[in-house]
Every structure is written in C-alpha cells, then in structure tokens.
Inverse folding.
C-alpha cells in the first residue's frame, strides 16, 4: 500500500515512518510548521526522510497556528512540567491541530495517488488530546470518504492508536530506529529538558520497554519523581 506519513520528527512518527518503510510502500513524509516553539523537531523529520530516501514536504501553516491561541506550544504560556497524564498538560492542546494536518495530508495523498495516510496518534494521547482518540480516527476516515468520493479512496493508518508509548519504543527498537535523532521536548532547547510532559513520557517509555534511552536530557532524573507523584494520585 502506497502510504504517506505525517512526520513531526518525534519518536512516535519517526518510528511509524520506519514501520511503513519496512512493511508497506512509503511514498513521502509530510511535516507541518504551525508556529510551534519546538520547531527544531522538523530537523529530525527532515533527517528521517533523507535516511529513508523519500521526499519530504514541510507545509507552512504558521499563519493558522497564530490564530490557535491559548496553547503553550503556540503562545506565550509556560510549558508545564510533570507527568504527561496530568490535567496540567491540557494547556499543550492546539485546537483542531490533527484535524487540520490530516485534512491537508489527505489532499496531498489524493493528488499523489497514495492509498493511505499514516499518523502516529497513540493510546497515551487519549487523555489529553481529543483528536488522537479512536472515535476521532474513525469519524475522520469516514468524513474523508465523502470528501474524496469519486476522486480517491484513502485509508487512515493509525497502528499505534490503542498502544502506549512503551509499545512504540519497543517497535522502534525492533526496526532499528535511531532514537537519538528524534525530538520530543516541547521546550525546543539545545537538549531535551527532561522536565516537560513529553520528556517525562519519553523517559518513562524507555524504562518500561527496557530499552536504552540515548537521549541527552538537561535533567535526566526528574522523571522518577514525576512518575512517582503521578502514581500516588491514582485511585488504589
């Protein structure tokens, strides 16, 4: 199946790109500049495309991103620290981000005669991001059948939608993904900060998967206390 992958440059989407390249026919990577403070993730997406030998497009939707205010990723709000599943992480939601990106990607796929669009939404995102949940995935795919009726029939491929981050790390290890060449941190600094929700989630996932984490963190041990604190809040 000829498949286009939406690739941010993060661990999940780079692993997905490698999975598609190994199991299907990877046609291209599409990334989005929506004005995110961690725009350096796009460098990792570019490197992934070069490594896999496919075209790479960066779609500039930053004017749209400027209108999607209220998120710590696109506005001036501080990026919260702590466990990824805490309520405080809701400030990282960019309204309708995945729906906007997927709509563009489906158009690109139709124009390029691809048969599927792949997105790396995963089970760990369900709590925070409504446009990462199975109901959204199913509804969006149904909507696109109507939008492209008579023009193309394109599947939405989301193999991680019911899996956790540790499962993705395990899959990436199996596929030989160079994890050090992926970017997760929402701060977008010189190194992963180790304290924001995505850094804590990333570090915890490597631990749970029993896979060596090659990532350089400014605070490599913060995740331990953050995970312990989150666990203490869970009902017994």
């Amino acid at each position: 199946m000829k498949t286009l992958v939406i690739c941010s440059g993060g661990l999940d989407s780079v692993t997905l790109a490698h999975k598609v390249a190994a199991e299907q026919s990877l046609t291209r990577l599409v990334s989005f500049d929506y004005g995110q403070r961690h725009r350096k993730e796009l460098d990792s997406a570019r490197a992934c495309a070069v490594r896999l030998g496919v075209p790479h497009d960066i779609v500039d939707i930053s004017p749209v991103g400027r209108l999607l205010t209220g998120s710590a990723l696109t506005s001036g709000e501080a990026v919260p620290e702590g466990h990824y599943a805490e309520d405080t992480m809701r400030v990282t939601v960019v309204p309708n981000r995945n729906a906007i990106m997927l709509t563009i990607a489906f158009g690109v796929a139709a124009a390029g005669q691809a048969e599927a669009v792949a997105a790396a939404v995963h089970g760990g995102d369900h709590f925070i991001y409504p446009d990462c949940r199975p109901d959204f995935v199913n509804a969006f795919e149904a909507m696109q059948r109507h939008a492209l009726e008579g023009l193309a029939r394109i599947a939405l491929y989301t193999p991680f939608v019911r899996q956790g981050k540790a499962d993705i790390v395990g899959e990436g290890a199996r596929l030989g993904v160079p994890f050090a060449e992926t970017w997760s941190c929402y701060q977008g600094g010189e190194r992963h900060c180790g304290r924001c929700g995505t850094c804590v989630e990333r570090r915890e996932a490597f631990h749970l998967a029993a896979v060596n984490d090659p990532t350089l963190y400014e605070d490599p041990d913060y995740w331990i206390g953050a995970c312990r604190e989150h666990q203490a809040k869970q009902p017994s």
In short: The first strand starts at residue 2 and ends at 6.
